[in-house]
Amino acid sequence: MSGRLKGKLALVTAAGQGIGRAIAEAFIAEGAKVIATDLDAAKLKSLKKASVFALDVRTTAKVDALAKQVIKKFGAPDILVNCAGYVHQGSVLDCSEQDWDFSFDLNVKSIHRILRAFVPAMLKNGGGSIINIASVASSLRGLPNRYAYGATKAAVIGLTKATAADFIRRGIRVNAICPGTVQTPSLNDRIATNAKRFSKSLKEVRNDFIDRQPIGRLATAGEIAAGAVFLASDESSYYTGQTLQIDGGMTM
Questions:
Q1: Rounded CA separation 138/50 (Å)
Q2: Can you give the C-alpha Rg of the chain in angstroms?
Q3: pLDDT at 249 over 80
Q4: pLDDT the model gives residue 1
Q5: Measuring CA to CA, which residue among 94, 182, 92, 130 is closest to residue 13?
Q6: Among positive and negative, which fits the CA dihedral 111, 86, 38, 25?
Q7: Residue 196: CB partners within 8 Å, gap ≥ 6?
Q8: Does the annotation count 147 as an active-site position?
Q9: What DSSP string describes the chain?
Q10: What is the tens place of the pLDDT at every residue in 224-247?
Q11: 44: pLDDT strictly greater than 60
Q12: How far apart (Å, rounded) are the C-alpha atoms in residues 16 and 40?
């Protein structure tokens, strides 16, 4: 099937690499007009057929300015994907107040900023689909050394359900994707950090991540993007307030 998003306008944050990049590319392949943002604009240069913008989702004024620019030039988005995030590693003993505040600002408050900036125009336009990237490490499952991260992603699920309830009769659907462990540049960075921290080889640490996946392998970013295409399309018109767990069996 192709053209599942034909005629739709989508905005994707953190589209420079990893899951965000795969989602932007999948949306383009399905016929959507994509607005791709990232803190590092250089990562967006190779994203063909998208309108690209640098965006710091941690700065309210910049989010609001981009929203005004986008809405004036392109109109209200039909699809919003909130993909920006950060994985803090460690327990409460490793989490300073600065770590906690940064994690919540990037993983949760950034979504609040995007919603505040774009939802009014989406409502005037008749609605749309909002997709928030959460995680199985959340209210769904506790994982070791994911204290701050798990708390933020639980908050994302709560935010998703609350927003879905608020606008269920006004044309806006809101869902969360909860991936398991995905092969991304971010994962490579965590593997390198853990190898150094625990005096292990990169292969040993990678195998540790693989071993916690019941399916026996890591997910690809494309597999997560396939779920986003479904939630963005009219095929999921009866889905709202849900968590789509693409997790290789971690929460079965």
A1: 32
A2: 18
A3: yes
A4: 57
A5: 130
A6: negative
A7: none
A8: no
A9: ---TTTT-EEEESSTTSHHHHHHHHHHHHTT-EEEEEESSGGGGTT-TTEEEEE--TT-HHHHHHHHHHHHHHH-S-SEEEE-------B-GGG--HHHHHHHHIIIIIHHHHHHHHHHHHHHHTT-EEEEEE--SBTTTB--TTBHHHHHHHHHHHHHHHHHHHHHTTTTEEEEEEEE-SEESHHHHHHHHHHHHHTT--HHHHHHHHHHT-TTSSPEEHHHHHHHHHHHHSGGGTT--S-EEEESTTTT-
A10: 999 999 999 999 999 999 999 999
A11: yes
A12: 7
Q: How far is CA 32 from CA 6, 211, 224, in A?
A: 5, 37, 17
Closest CA to 122 of 154, 170, 84: 170
Quick one: pLDDT at residue 117?
A: 98
CA pair distance 46, 42, nearest whole angstrom: 8
- Of all residues in the chain, the percent with pLDDT exceeding 70 is 100
Q: How far apart are the first and last CA of the chain?
A: 28
> What does the mean pLDDT of the chain come to?
97
Q: Which residue has the tokens 């929203």?
A: 67
CA–CA distance, 190 with 122 (Å, rounded to integer): 37
Please identify which residue in the block is written with the tokens 């195998």.
207
State pLDDT tens for residues 110-124.
Answer: 999 999 999 999 999
The catalytic position among 86, 147, 149, 239 is 149
pLDDT tens for 47-102 read 989 999 999 999 999 999 999 999 999 999 999 999 999 999 999 999 999 999 99
